[in-house]
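Open question from group meeting: does this chain pack into something compact, or does most of it stay loose? Before anyone orders reagents, we agreed to write out a predicted structure and look at it together. Recording both the input and the output here so the notebook holds the full record.
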Amino acid sequence: MRKTLQAFTVLLLFSVATFAQGKNDSQWVTGYGTNLANHGGGTRIDFNTVKPTLTHFSLPYHFGFNMPCSISDDEGNLQFYANGCKVVNYNNEVVENGEDLSPGYFQNIECDEPIYGYDSYQNMMILPLPGHPQQYVYFHHTMEMDISSGKILYTEVDMSANNGTGKVIQKNQLLRGPVTQEGAFTAVRHGNGQDW
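Structure tokens returned:
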């Protein structure tokens, strides 16, 4: 009986720890800019419900040919999304200082037109900044004509700024470069449950 009670207690604690983890990937934004011919705008996929909820809306920015990046807070509320060119908040507005991301050859081509996004594959990722609630780090990779001269950059976003509509507080900071391989961004949460 005592071993059964201990096993039940461990299982209960494991369930509580799993339930307490953040819901930073609970909402996804995808789609094409509404101003593109024959495209219906954006779709928000909300995984906070048992059956995911789809919401269609007028998307002011195009995501290119890749999947966009989005981040939710620990409760699952959408904070912002990015397309390699801009950081856009949950109201579909560019956050303060949230333009002119990923400088270089392709940024000049793809980001100057409002219908485009930075075309890259698995080259973007957003993570919560450990120890700083409502602050996030957006990692993005630049591409150049010579593929071996791309860079991995990071941009910090503070969503507590401007009454919760956000502000980019550091932009296009060099993390690594030049890099010879495009894409393949991934992250793993540290065993301490806080760091990445």
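Observations to bring back to the group:
The chain has one domain: 21-179.
Helices lie at 2-20, 105-110, 161-164.
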